[in-house]
What we know:
By secondary structure, this protein is mainly alpha-helical. It has helices spanning 3-7, 15-20, 23-30, 34-63, 73-108, 116-135, 162-190, 203-235, 246-281, 288-301, 317-345, 354-375, 379-385, 389-419, 425-447, 466-496, 570-586, 603-622, 643-671, 685-711, 714-744, 753-785, 795-820; strands at residues 9-11, 625-627.
Amino acid sequence: MSQLSRIGTVVQSDPMSQDIFPPRVRRWLFTTNHKEVGILYLVTSLFFFVAAGLLALTMRTQLSVPNNNVLTETLYNQFVTVHGLLMIFWVLSPLAFGFANYIIPLQIGARDLAFPRLNAMSYWFYLFSGVAIIMSFIFGAPDLGWTLYSPQTAFQFTPTIGLNVGAAALILITVSITMSSVNFLVTMFKMRAPGMKLRNMPVFPWAILVTIFMMLYAFPSFLAAVLLLYVDRAFGTFYFSSIQGGALLWDNVFWFFGHPEVYIVLFPAIGVIADVIPTFTRRPLYGSKYVIGSMIAAAVISFIVWGHHMFVTGIGLTSTKLYTVTTIAVSLPFDVMVIAMIETLIKARVKLKAAALFALGAIALFVIGGITGVYLASVALDHALRGTYFVVAHFHYIMVGASIMGLIAGLYYWFPKLTGRMYNETVAKVHFVVSFIGFNILYFPMFLLLDMPRRIQTYAPDTGWGPLNALATLGGFIFGGAQILLFLNLFFSQQRGLPSGSNPWDGWTLEWSLPSPPPAHDFDTIPTIAEDGTYHFGNSPGLPNGTGYPNGSKIGNGYSHSHLEGLSAWPVVVAFAAFIFFLGLTIGQPSNPTTPVTFQPFWPLIADGAILGVIALYGYSRERFQVHEETHVESWPFREVPNVKLGIWTFLGAEVIFFGVLIGAYFFVRTNSPTWPEIGSLFEIRNGFAMTLVLLTSSLTAIMALVSAKIGSRNGLIASLLGTFGLGISFLYIKATEWFYLGTHGVFSVANGLPATSYFITTGTHGVHVFAGMLMTLYLLANTLKGRYLKGDHQAIEHFGLYWHFVDIVWVFLFPLFYLI
């Protein structure tokens, strides 16, 4: 029996993975192991880090002297936009989740993530999304800043289709993030080692858990915003090109995501620092429970702070007062975190290894970035500073100074665990010193450029901005050059470095009990954590976690075979199919803004993506890939909820936010419109009532299907699934005829722009969900005809029912909004 089969993962051999590619290639193409997926994330995010850095250095070169012409205005703006998007979406969070993929299961005592194939798929969606954003340069990359402010996104202002391709990339990365978030949440709630209660988890897993919850609330909002943006550009709808929606609607929807995103990329770095500092001070983190509580508080408050990005838009006085208070309030939890780390350092004998130096440097830079951010809570100061390089400096002290420096600390800290070798400590320390000096030379002068506007391509000599820009450019090249030391050090060390042993730092968390690198299955025996939460295994006296390996667990022998038994080809194929499909949607001829619905997509690519996607999903569903759920684990508060059901609940929670934003956008444009069509004048109430009746009835047939499966009635299950499918067809037929009638009777016109826009986008998105549910029904029917779901294995019917009931509930909200109110 194979090693992976022995621990609970069973995979049928796949001819694609056995015959076409050599073992080393298919190991990395088709792996589902969390450690190898983590390494893929780390390597890919570092590649995008280099790409974004090269864009930044080119921009700094352009600004180094007045009247420079290294870049044209358009190309400069494209570099600014893609640099910002790459750093925020393709570098910071993916780098953090590379560590999370590798380390979190080890720290909580799990053998893998809950859904290994979903984990692999999330990586491939991430990779192809990054390919798409870089490909946007071919079609005229977005050139309006990473915030993509409306109305600059309108076709008449940005006619190139590079922005459409960028929108497709953002949709793909959001899908990747959603899959990853669901996976980590289920893993951390359902697969902790016995005795590993939530209160006993290290700070890094807590930081990731808080980040995941923020992602599940923030990114569906962003996905809805990008969907509205894409449909406006492709089909000539009016959400962001109307006065009633426009810039303010985009600001609200984007910054509801955008401000929490700052903490989404920051919290993992704080978690890394909170692991590194105790290890190198030989002291537990001071007030660790307060640090965790502060992260939770900051996460909650971050969702009511977004309005401070809109002080200059003319929002009401009451709103500005509220957002001033919340902006100041969100800084208070970070005060607690910084004080806790400083208290940990007081009177400690710190081992100044490279990881510790980067952690300390990140804290110092974070303090500067945080203090300068408080100024922006003032409405008066925000008006003066919002569009200047002061904000650029503040932002980068947080995003690069705290986040990147903190994550580099993690790179040095866990490098011995990932590779089994030590890096060159002297080179690493030089890397820190040069990076820290270069960073401050780069960004601190920007605080003094109080009157220099952001996103300008050049400037005149008499502005006086030349010396500070020249100094900042020098700092940029110093900081960028320092990263060459990082890459050379890690590259040569993973080949020639001295063996590290299992615990070179005398670390206190569970991953350091394993060989370096750990075996494919992580633990021979799942460890047990003592009742008081201690599982310490360092060799220094007086450490805070007791002594010995947890529960006397036998630690693996460190074998390093490539575990080809755990491969699946379908995650990469599904992701590639989605990439091809969205590429076809976005590289066609854009809409003429004066003639709606004239978009001509590139149908060959769409067809290729759809066909390949159907084949891949079929293969994915047919693959015998099962992951055993451990029974004797900590799983509060979801002890009685199976992993898959918890994953579906989590996904549906994100869907609630997604549809909530679409409905919120409808209310926004409607309440800002002086007139709105009378009830029944555009949309026939009887059509809406008929569709409501059909969907509610389909929920009943879905329940009957589950009951039939539980009692073992094959005919009842087939009849119920056929009834659900037929009712779904009826719903889509009524919807299609209504759409056709409205389209042929001039409803989609400038006069009815916003009512038609909100109706078609919202009900169309719901219709796509109905169609997806019908495909699930066909799959369930095919398996039922083969005799499945009748012998106690009815979970798939139950999971489908959860999704289908959610889709029906959404329509219960949409029916009165569009037909009765």
